[in-house]
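Shift notes (night). Ran Serine/threonine-protein phosphatase while the centrifuge was going.
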Amino acid sequence: MGCGVTKSDHFHKQSRKAIKAAVLIQRWYRQYVARTEMRRRYTWHIFQSMEYSGEQAQIKLYNFLGYLMDNFNPTSNERNLISHIFRENEVCRDTEWERYFCYKEIEVPEIYSGPHLTFPLTVEQAAGLVEAFRNKKQLHSRYVLQLLLETWKLLRLLPNINRVSTCHSKEITICGDLHGQLEDLLLIFYKNGMPSLEKPYVFNGDFVDRGKDSIEILLILFSFQLVYPTDVYLNRGNHEDHIVNLRYGFTKEVLSKYKMHGKRILKLLQKIFSWLPLMTVIDQKVLVLHGGISDTTDLGVLARVDRHSYVSALRPPKKRHTSSTGTSIDSDMDEDVWSVNRAFQRRGSLTYPKPLGTRNSFQNRSLQDFSERIKVNMEDELESRRRRQSVFNSAANKSEQDLTPAASCDSVSSDRTKDEWRQILDLLWSDPMTQDGCTPNEVRGGGCYWGPDVTEDFLSRHNMQLIIRSHECKQEGYEFCHNRKVSAAPESNLFRGTEHQRLTRVPQVLTLFSASNYYDVGSNRGAYVKLGPDLVPYVIQYQASSITRELTVRQSVGRTERSALRVLREQLFAHKSDLICAFKQFDSENTGLVSLNDWAAAVESVMRLDLPFRMMRSQLVSCKTGDGLIDYNDWFNELAIKGPNTDHIDQSLLETLYRHRSTLETIFRIVDTDNSGFITIEDFRQTWKLLSVYLNMEITDEAISDLAVNIDRNNDGSIDIDEFMEAFRLTDKKSRLERGRSMFMVTASDHSRLQLEAEAEARPRPVGAEEEGGPGAASPGPDPSAAAREAGERGHAANAP
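Came back to this:
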């Protein structure tokens, strides 16, 4: 008896200890999961904030340049530097453009080992192109121009809105943003099969920019569209825009791969992008478009718009003047095409008869200063327009007798054109939000945010049930939103003998993003959607990098976090002077010390990234005093950012270069009119002066000249853009493997394995030796064991989010 009681007490004691231990383990694990998720979220927010900040800067820059074009004397040097990017509707018939893009004089050398194309294309040639690009071969420029020219001819026959039906095939595959990541497209083809009569595809825009294989993706998609014009559909995205391409890498990629004929290829692609359809409708019920909608979106208007006139969606098209021969003439034209261009140039200087000041005064005024200066009263404006009309008509009659008199207008569009432009801008740039309503998208700088009420109203008006859009990177590759409550099948109540309606939530918007590892390896999955006759989307996720399949969740989060923190450190260092000023507002006694709260408040006030800087202090700051204060001077040294040897360069100029590096490079690309990659010293000076006006800051001629002299080391009077931008790139002095101030560190063995994997990945591999499950494991196409290889990947029948 006594022994039994003792054993029972001992058992209960052990049970209580086990339960307590289990509770502790559970509490620790929950904290671990919460911290890991917290790190994932702020890492994601860092990347996304940087991306949207860049897009906003690009739109602001383009608006500023457009402002200069509209309001400055046509003879000004600053205007001449940028005028060519606004010549979007040159005075040429399509037949004349086809002669300009003619490929027949381009010879293919015998040593060329890449694919050869004959037209009309066959499915074997399209598949061969995929295989060639997988093996890192390049298509010859003759075939590139020929393929693009055939694509342009086809796109001109297509409507603004593609109409697709699932009755001809069991399923339609829809892909989101690819952004130049060829490995993702190859993996999609490997897992899902290449386009065919039985396997139609819809590609939802943003094929280019950011990634290194944008032109290859375009050539693959265009080749399959030529082979299967009724089974491959391409929607336009916001990156199918030559202005956006200047900043995000596609222009540079084409010019580096096709040095001799790159300019013609880019011009033809500019035409092609403007002819891409705007959206696709599946079974009259599912709308597939790149960005989104707004409270003014009207499919009837979008079906009638002249989409090709919106060469860049960032600006309304110029008013066009039509000659008696039917030639469409834009208000900005190439001088070497039509002599009547001089008449158009003269009329521009009459818009604002009062001069804007000297060249020096131009450099040191802000955009607001300009807008105040150019205001004229209504009578002056009307008189100016009458004079402008008279001079233009007179000059046009003398220069070209068959030109019909037309109302001339530089950038003022009709209300109808402006409405169409806003709808296209919303279509390409908008994002959904959780709140009701429709507000301007100030984060990106273009488009709008639209809420669930706007979605429901739009779907109700057009008798649709689902919107599939892309445009936003999602960690899982997809995301449902804007759910609505609907009545399901009635259920019987056995106790009361009655039936009641059961409410369920049905998603109305699906965001789809197909570029995996978009920000960094392991940052996000990619996804594509299969849509059958039931119109229930089935989502397949994947990750194209083999490295991520070997990493644990902790290692993957840590790797991505370190990459995001590296980018953030560089941005913090680039804002050093502003941050010091902000710290000194809290440090009234000039001790060089601030509290943690003051440090976080100062950093947020300068960076405006809406990040939890107080929580991230352990990742960004370690130089604390004994009483918890932060030495902000030591902190800048601790950021471990290294720039070039810049002792001889004005520091304010240098910080401007660091902070606005992408904007400066974009202006360089614009100024480089012949796409040679070089600009003259004088154009270099004008670029910096243009930047100083844009940023509303003073940069002295002496500082610019010193920088130009130091860059032009061989004294040839020109500057290599790539070398200049690379020379002033900020880099972390600590390597990725030496750093790692994360909450959870990766072990030394993990570091060694990651380093070995990185080295192995960098080594060239024989053809077909890609990782198992990757795009090189088998020839693209339907795979009988695809289901087995999809183990570890996830598919979701998406009747609920």
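Residues 2-71 form the longest helix (70 residues). The longest strand covers residues 478-487.
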